Amino acid sequence: TTELAVDPNPTFLAHYNANANADYTYTSLNIPWYPLYNSGTTNATGLISNGLLVNSTDRLSYGGYNLKNEEGTIEMWVKPNWNGNNTETHTFFATYPADNVLIYNFIFDKFYNINAPSKIGLSAWSETQNGPQGLVNANISQWKSGEWHHIAISWGTQGRKLYVDGMMVDDNTYSGPLRSYPTPAGKAPYFTIGTNTLALNETANSVFDEIKISNTQKAGSEIFDDYLLGLSMIPLANLSYKKISNYQFIVYSNHTLFLDS
């Protein structure tokens, strides 16, 4: 099965076909790029081919120079091993100041706060001199364990925008850059996938596939195209379909496409 192509303005791409190595970074094309730290992750059945399982005891991080402060987009396919209404926080992507990372406190996660139960959902935000800024979130209580979802966050002059399964579900007018810090001598900036460095119990416990980071803020139409492209590459053996009225419904997991019969 053909994998997703490298974006025109890429800084990171991971297919996870064989291991946790990235397939593309801002410094190399088609050269395996090793995680800075990888403990316990395992290959699992992915959306297209293989994916990478990051469960409750695993740790995974990569060099943080793959993020551009002024603008960018992060996209990924995830298959959580939990329901969206559970009372836990699960981290998909993060950077942390406590570990001398380049970008200060940029978080993309499934959030739960016992003091704010109405805030259960997919969220992203970053720290600035004036505290957290650019918060976007969406209700994902309907998610079921074992379902695949495409999620994305973009930042830049168009503000912060959050996408689920190809559709923008929230936006924030904050257009400031991600806050950056000088990297101390001997310290390498990094970001984590599926892991929260400051809260080790907030791992993703999910399978990841086709993680892409771009150094431009992608338009909503581009993200929708990426979502549809991912669906189009699912092996036919994983598709089921049925005809209803004058339409053909092609269904994969929780995704439904409506096509003229």
Description:
- With 261 residues, this protein is mainly β.
- 5% of the residues lie in helices and 44% in strands.
- The protein has one helix spanning 220-232, and strands spanning 10-14, 22-25, 28-33, 37-39, 42-45, 50-54, 59-63, 72-80, 90-94, 106-111, 121-128, 131-138, 149-155, 160-164, 167-172, 190-193, 206-214, 240-244, 247-252, 255-260.
- The strands form three sheets. Strands 1, 2, 3, 5, 6, 8, 13, 14, 15 and 17 form a ten-stranded antiparallel sheet that branches. It has a seven-stranded antiparallel sheet with strand order 4-7-16-9-10-11-12, with no helix packed on it. The chain has a three-stranded antiparallel sheet with strand order 18-19-20, with no helix packed on it.
- The two termini are 26 Å apart.
- Mean pLDDT is 78; it is low at 98-102, 240-254 and 256-261.
Q: For the residues shown, what is the average pLDDT?
A: 78
Q: Percent of residues in helical segments?
A: under 10%
Dominant shape:
globular
Unreliable stretches (pLDDT < 50, length at least 5) are 98-102, 240-254, 256-261
Specify Rg, calculated over alpha carbons: 18 Å
Strand content: 35-45%
Our measurement of the CA-to-CA distance between the termini, rounded to an integer number of angstroms, reads: 26 Å
Taking the sheet with the most strands, its summary is: 10 strands, antiparallel
Counting H and I runs of at least 4 residues, what is the number of helices?
1
Helix-strand string? EEEEEEEEEEEEEEEEEHEEE
**Structural class of the helix and strand makeup?**
mainly beta
What's the count of strands?
20
